[in-house]
Amino acid sequence: MSVHSDPYVAHIYALAQPDPKTRQNAIKMLGELRDMRAVPVLMQMLEAKEAAVRGQAARALGKLSHPQAIEPLIRIVQTDSAMVRRQAVAALGRISADAILPALVAALTDPDPKVMEIAARALEKRGDRRAVAGLRALVEDPERIVSTKPRSQWNAFEYARAAAICALGSLRDPDAIPTLIGAFAAGDGIVQDTAILAMADLGDVGIPVLLEALQSEDTATRWAAVKTLERMRCVRAAPSVIPLLKDPATRVRGYAARYLGQCGDPQAIPALAETIENTGDEGPAALLKFGESGREALRAVLARIPTRTHSILVSIRNLPDRDARFVPPLVELLRSESSDTRIAAARMLAYYRDDRAVPPLIAALRDGEKLVRQEIVQALGQIGDVRAVDPLIHALNDREWFVRCRAIDALADIGDARAVEPLLRKLKREVDPQERRLAARRLGDFQDARIVEPLLAIADDPEDEIGDMFPAALGKLGDSRALAPLLRILQSDDRVLRTESANALGKLGDRSAVGPIVEALQQKPQHSAELVLALGNLGDQAAVDAVTAALARALAPSSEQAGANTGEESTCVSKPFMTLTERVCLEEYGLQALGKLKATASLLTYLQHRSVRVRTRAAHALGEAGDAGDVILKALRKTLADEEKGVQAAAKKALRKLGAKGRLDTRICRHVSFGGAGTVLGGVRASPDAAPTALPAQLLSPSSCGATCRVFSRWTSTLPGAAPRGLRTCFFSV
Predict the structure, then answer these.
(1) Domain ranges of the chain
(2) What is the pTM of this model?
(3) Cα(271)–Cα(290) distance, integer angstroms
(4) Fold for domain 598-662?
(5) What distance in Å separates the CA atoms of residue 587 and residue 1, rounded to the nearest whole number?
(6) Which residues of the chain have pLDDT under 50?
(7) Hey, what CATH topology would domain 1-96 get?
């Protein structure tokens, strides 16, 4: 038999090699073999001159866990370098003999923090309470250790302390609780978090000590104790925690309230209600956890009109339902001495939208605080009760301009015809311009014939500073006389106004505007984006050529744009007539308009454009066009193979939209990679015409199988047996 046929012998021979790396690998493999014949040899390797070799030998001895290795490993822990000591302590932790316990406890005082951490974790696994004293010494005396080391090592020592705290928690020794409480009170970060977890791990064993800690004079100790009880969900500690609701420390009161809300002891309800003003957000939240009895207590608290109600109202707002029984106490808060309380009450009443709140809110319109009046006006507008119309009309004359503006909004939200005349008076020139603009905009919500003439008069007045400020209102009028002002605003220098005017023309629906808009495209090409949007909104097929031409200019190179603008060939590099932002807007609005105009022939051309952005928007527009012809479906299926994921996603979305009308047959797999086919098929509505009868092998490949199988439930849930034969086979084979 060859010498090297035995792996053990081969690795022993490798130990004689001069290269340290070779010997390290041999030692590592001897440890993996778990061959006890290697113990004497590995013990000799602990005397090697290379620290890396000695460390690897200690690690291998730990895997073998032989008692003969204890003494040499202990010697290494006491004398060798930090790196070797770490491996030796870890190896000792793997051996279950009692003789190693003193060595592991001694390693808790090692100058290297990593050695201390490894020793603490080894002691935690052993579960021997004889190590409690050493672990407590490590946790309680960090000053002596840290003071002898540079600041860069402090974090490593904190991890060592955290490991010792974990060990104390797992040992479940009641004597360790004072140490854990002290670590929580004095520590931060990982030490504090670990101490809480460790104390919670002690379970019932530590409850008596925690109850005693609740009476401590030290604030941090009381805080640690109540926080631990809250984490432990210990119910029987409620009588001891209730007095902490009056603790001088805010954080102690807050955690006491959290604990009482969690434990669910009904004896805590009166105490929580009594101290609710001093427990922050935790007190009201805790009361609401008691169900109906807690809500009743909270309503009684509101009836006392406390000076601080923000946290209470926040808790009420977070309720899963709108409990109308809170409305009466909220109404009482409108008479509070605190303006902040009155504001909060008005907001809550607006949230509830209860008719019972309308008379008190109307009475509160005489409040002396301007911010309170503003909230009252907004609340009345959100409730929408017609009883508030006359008081809100009176509020149009408030001495504060922002209250008057909110009154305009509130009247428009209610929509009562009695508000039309007062709002029309706000259009006079002597009125503040901001109020005039707002009134003009909101008058369009009334759909009242009385507002047409005044708005058109302002729009036709070139000297009126707000004449172009309300295209949206003109669009809502539905009157053909609004066409001329809207066309003028469409050529404004303000991009926002042009966009609003384009949308308003779509609502107006007067197709006689197509001609003037097409002429404006030639006169002001820099406004092309909004003009094209208006043509798309009007939906007249006569505008297709104009939109296509404008879009072609936007997608042309800069030199061609300049030539198109001047009508001549460009002989030098000229500044393009559109900025980059204008070009991007024109691309978006132009393709969107072609979709609304159902110009699928042009969109199919742009589906092959070199620009990713154009191809993506063209695919979206084809989906909006709603044409599910074979040519459209074939082009979109081919686009599924596009190299850009964004274009693929747009094509999938378009196919889903067209799926209710078009047939997504098995040919789709020719252009689909990975799970795209299954995704598209999932968008098809379950119907006999839409569901293919069989699926080819490409859709059942490993890459597409997952997405395809998800279609199964969507079809079979509404149409039993509609899932294709191949899909059913694939589904049941997964």
Answers:
(1) 1-96, 598-662, 670-734
(2) 0.52
(3) 13
(4) Leucine-rich Repeat Variant (1.25.10)
(5) 81
(6) 1-3, 144-149, 151-152, 559-576, 660-734
(7) Leucine-rich Repeat Variant (1.25.10)
